[in-house]
Amino acid sequence: MCGIVGLYLKDRRMEREMGGLFATMLVCMTDRGPDSAGFAVYGNEPPEGWLKVTVRYSGGGYDWDALSGRLGRRFSCEARLQVNANYAVIAVPAAAAELRRALAELAPGLAVMSIGRSIEIFKEIGAPASIVERFAVRKLRGTHIIGHTRMATESAVTTDGSHPFSTGMDLCLVHNGSLSNHNRLRARLQRGGIEIRTENDSEVAAGYLMWRLQQGNTLAEALHAALGDLDGFYTFAIGTAGGFAVLRDPIACKPAVLAETGQYVAMASEFQALAALPGIDSARVWEPKPAQVYTWDRAE
User: Fold this and answer.
1) What is 3-44+123-297's CATH number, 3.90.1150.10, 2.170.190.11, 3.60.20.10, 1.10.472.10?
2) What amino acid positions are annotated as catalytic residues?
3) What does the pLDDT average to over 33-43?
């Protein structure tokens, strides 16, 4: 049993409120996932041609300024740096593959959590309330955000095993459920060049979507294909640079609720996580149907 929450802002004037609204939603899911928690926040894009990388250091203090300087010299720029607890978000004018190679050479002890123009991922072991405080979630601003509270069933309680999972540019996935064919699918995806670092079945689902996108599918097409290729029970929330999507398996045994107003779209495993949102009393509230893809995207 895990908890999922997501908030997509249709009204950009609400961006300064996003962190506070989301923090309440995430903490409401504590009973569904006390082991660890995490979130992917979108927005605050760097200049055209630049990418952001979110990296984590699992030890004590780290000299982020020195790393930022080395990356700046590597890419002939003044790198942009933001530090949040034991994480840093660094932006440079580089392609994703170049940025990964530079980090592997300059800082092999760091874990890359996400790369993209918009996405930043933060996650750790601990109760959701502790994650909210650790990463100052209430102060966050952005266009949309997806979060997860985990009760581990398929793999160990580790930071790497917690959600969200990102397997490609600006893409992330959170999952409530269990996949029965993840071992076979993991081997297939790895042969196709998809990097999967953990034994978690949810990372396989994220990798599957990235593989489909690399084949030229749209996100909606990839999710429709997932209904035939992923065996098990699942409710997914997927984040992209432009928006987010929700999908439940054909049996839909894992709970989900959606709410939409003129200002936002919100999603959660239980309504209690939506109850404090502004305008919720007049929102359209519904349970997403089994095997139906729901998407919201600014590009559409």
Assistant:
1) 3.60.20.10
2) 2
3) 96
pLDDT digits 0-9 by tens, 9-18: 999 999 999 9
Element (H, E) at 267: strand 264-268
Tell me the pLDDT tens digit for each residue of 74-129: 999 999 999 999 999 999 999 999 999 999 999 999 999 999 999 999 999 999 99
DSSP element (H, E) containing 96 = helix 96-106
Domain 46-117, CATH among 3.30.70.1150, 3.30.420.40, 3.40.50.300, 3.30.70.2860: 3.30.70.1150
Q: What is the DSSP string of 131-191?
A: HHHHTTGGG---SEEEEEEE--SSS-S-TTTSS-EEEETTEEEEEEEEESSHHHHHHHHHH
Is the pLDDT at 152 greater than 80? The verdict is no
pTM (2 d.p.): 0.95
> In the numeric block, which tokens belong to residue 170?
């600006």
* Contact criterion met (CB below 8 Å) for 119 and 239: yes
* Element spanning 21, H or E: helix 18-28
Residues constituting the chain = 300
Instruction: Tell me the pLDDT tens digit for each residue of 241-265.
Output: 999 999 999 999 899 999 999 999 9
Show contacts of 102-110: CB within 8 Å, 24+ apart: 102/71, 102/74, 102/75, 103/53, 103/55, 103/71, 106/67, 106/70, 106/71, 106/74, 107/55, 107/67, 109/57, 109/59, 110/55, 110/56, 110/57, 110/62
Q: Where does the pLDDT of residue 155 fall: very low under 50, low under 70, confident under 90, or very high at 90 and above?
A: low
Q: From CA 37, how far away is CA 163, in angstroms rounded?
A: 7
